[in-house]
Amino acid sequence: MIPLMYRSFGSTPPADLRGARRLFVWLLALGFVASAVAMLAVFNFFSLFFGVFVNFLGRDGVRFTFLHLFRRVPVIGIAPLVLLGYAIWQNAHWLSGWELVMAPVLTAAAAAVLLAAAVLINTLLGRRAGR
Questions:
Q1: Which of 53, 90, 94, 98 would be 65's cystine partner, CB 3.0–4.6 Å?
Q2: Exposed, middle or buried, 5 (CB in 10 Å: 0-12/13-18/19+)?
Q3: Residues 83-106: pLDDT tens digits?
Q4: What is the reported pLDDT for 110?
Q5: Is the pTM of this model over 0.70?
């Protein structure tokens, strides 16, 4: 555990650890490795959906591995599109057509209205400042 913890920070473990100091460093290394494994489990659970594997335990720095299909096509280029299609398909089953269409339409309309309001306000303030 101690060498694994030190390698993760790019250092060499000390050779003169004895007694209580060794026990303290070993407990610290145990806590680091346990928390690192828990973090890597959470990171990789969510990143593997996009074809990315994360590892930082035992190496100096973080290593991102991009998974490939047929050793040529990166999964990160395909997975977001597949997941978006699956999400749209699921929403189409759960929602009515009206609810499915109105959310993006209302978002685009609100953006256009707010953009027009910002332009109008800036134009009016610019004319007033020019007087």
A1: 53
A2: buried
A3: 888 988 888 788 787 887 888 899
A4: 97
A5: no
